Amino acid sequence: MARKRKDIAFPEKGTPRDQVLREMEAARDDDAKWKDGKSFAYVYYATDEHYDFLKKATNMYFSENALSPMAFPSLKKFESEVTSMIADMLGGDRKTYGSLTTGGTESNLMTVKAHREWAKEKRPTPHPELLVPISAHQSFDKAAHYFGLEIKKVPWDADFRTHAEAMKEAITENTIMIVGSAVEYSRGMVDPIKELGEIAQEYKVGFHVDGCLGGFMLPWVKKLGYPIPDFDMSVPGVTSMSCDIHKYGYGPKGSSSIFYTSERLWKHQFFASVDSPCGAYASPTMTGTRGGGVIAGAWATVKSLGEDGYLRLAKDAMDATKKLTAAIDAMPDLKVLGKPDMTVFAFTARDPAAINIYAVGDELQRRGWILDRLQFPPALHLIVTPPQVKVVDRFIADLGECVAHAKANPGSVAEGAALYGLLATFPDRANLKKVVLDFLADQYKA
Ligand SMILES: *Cc1c(COP(=O)(O)O)cnc(C)c1O
């Protein structure tokens, strides 16, 4: 093994714990300051009280392993109870079964795997394909890549809407499942789930609703009186739905859930190996050892917040979102993309020739605001959570100044904007993939 720097060679002697902790504290200096509401991505924070409670609940099961339901019946109880509670929130019934996973990606991987096994039995085809809207999360590309399936994408219309009719036309005898999102990540819109459900039934294909982002928000937004189209497992034709607990569920990082509208399909997710000298082995999801802390923490979160708690949090986030989208749409140089259904949205420049929106993102970042960058068209992305409620006015004021700055300095495009601009316009897309993978490797090299 090549040792590049002395301080990262394997430590010969242990370091005192308090010194290690001090080093960790110092290392965080440059990290996103999410608690102050300046990060519109990555962290979903409810309240200080919830955070302290969640740490206690998770720590209580810090060492336990849910790999064996026999060894830790309490974790089995937490998992089956919390999946039942979430299924109830998402229009499930007595035939709904689900599992906890480590994240939305694992949830989506699992349903693709389950549908692949189901198709082998019920709808065999030599070239199984997933059919997804262009806005579907990248975890479906990952699933196709991991599981050896094809993936086809259906473009959206000029208003960033997925058209059920276009999805229908793209179905072939190789299609084993279609996907709709509630909501999709980029514009925060609900796909036409009811229409897609009808199509899935007509063509006898699986239909997954990706509720990773919206699953824990849409039910409350609907209860608050906002018009939300049908999106959950009560829609005929839906065969599975995913829902992240570590996003708007405000659960511990590493918690998500996946549900099936039949026990049979759920079991197609499982894996068993019986001939190893290590013993018979069976596991429901991708991972082997499953940390007990996240399972206990997920249960404790839902139990402690309850419908009234989630409704309060949803109302705050929705109020802040409405204020933000109204303010942005009122700015002569900016516009919100599409018609966001909940607390996630993106905005871009009305005239891309006059303003480089990525340069606006860089200028915001210089002031400590963290926003995701989107492409096609270039845009900035916001996920609104409770900590943002207090900083809405400050953000709007800063945004106005950053737009003015970008407008006044069209030539001076910072490094970040140049990079994102390059990514979006790089002509050789196959080679771009290699460039991005090299970049990723560089990020993790010490
Ligand atoms: C976040 C997200 C996922 C993936 O979830 P991870 O927890 O990041 O793995 C999938 N779908 C949608 C719509 C998402 O927003």
List the helices and strands and how they pair.
Blueprint: H1 17-27, H2 48-60, H3 73-89, E1 97-101, H4 104-122, E2 129-133, H5 139-147, E3 150-154, H6 164-170, E4 175-181, H7 193-203, E5 206-210, H8 218-223, E6 240-244, E7 256-260, H9 263-267, E8 271-273, E9 281-283, H10 292-330, E10 334-336, E11 344-349, H11 357-366, E12 372-374, E13 379-383, H12 386-389, H13 392-408, H14 415-425, H15 429-444
Parallel strand pairs: 2-3, 2-4, 4-5, 5-6
Antiparallel strand pairs: 1-7, 6-7, 8-9, 10-11, 11-13, 12-13
Helix pairs in contact: 2-10, 3-10, 4-5, 6-7, 11-13, 11-14
Residues 103-105, 108, 137, 139, 181, 184-185, 210, 212-213, 244, 256 line the site of pyridoxal-5'-phosphate.
Helicity level, as a percent range?
A: 40-55%
Tally of individual helices: 15
H/E series, N to C? Answer: HHHEHEHEHEHEHEEHEEHEEHEEHHHH
Please compute the radius of gyration using only Cα atoms. 23 Å
Identify low-pLDDT runs: none
Report the principal-axis shape. Answer: globular
Could you tell me the strand content as a percent range?
A: 5-15%
Main pleated sheet: 7 strands, mixed
Cross-sheet strand order for the largest sheet? 1-7-6-5-4-2-3
> Which ions and ligands are bound to the chains?
pyridoxal-5'-phosphate
Terminal Cα span: 13 Å
Mean pLDDT: 93
- Total number of strands: 13
Q: Structural class of the helices, strands and pairings?
A: alpha/beta
